[in-house]
Amino acid sequence: MQIKYFQDTDTLLINFNNRPIAETKDINENVLVELDENGNLVSMTLEHAKNHSDLNDFSFQQFALA
């Protein structure tokens, strides 16, 4: 998984895996998702990211299996 922020365009790109993209869907005017041939999520793009998220408060947590 990769998360990339492009400051020049204020775009946040989240790649969940490296499968080939078969389809792109616009969720709304600022969010699009890319799907593989089975309809599984490959990536998500958020335009105008600073207006729709708090990029200064990013964290990642992984919890152990119980």
Short précis:
This protein is mostly beta strands and 66 residues long. The protein is 6% helix and 39% strand.
List strands and helices in order, with pairings.
Layout: E1 2-6, E2 11-15, E3 23-26, E4 31-35, E5 41-47, H1 49-52
Antiparallel strand pairs: 1-2, 2-5, 3-4, 4-5
Q: Kindly report how far apart the N and C termini lie.
A: 23 Å
Strand content: 35-45%
- Could you give the count of β-strands? 5
What gyration radius follows from the Cα positions, in whole Å? Answer: 13 Å
Task: List SSEs in N-to-C order.
Answer: EEEEEH
Biggest sheet overview:
5 strands, antiparallel
Q: Which class of secondary structure composition applies to the elements?
A: mainly beta
| Helix-residue proportion | under 10%
Strand order of the largest sheet: 1-2-5-4-3
Task: Name the poorly predicted regions.
Answer: none
Describe the structure.
This protein is mainly beta and 66 residues long. The chain has one domain. Helix content is 6%, strand content 39%. The chain has one helix and five strands. The protein has one helix spanning 49-52; strands at 2-6, 11-15, 23-26, 31-35, 41-47. The protein has a five-stranded antiparallel sheet. β4 (31-35) and β5 (41-47) form a beta hairpin. It starts with a strand and ends in a 14-residue tail after the last helix.
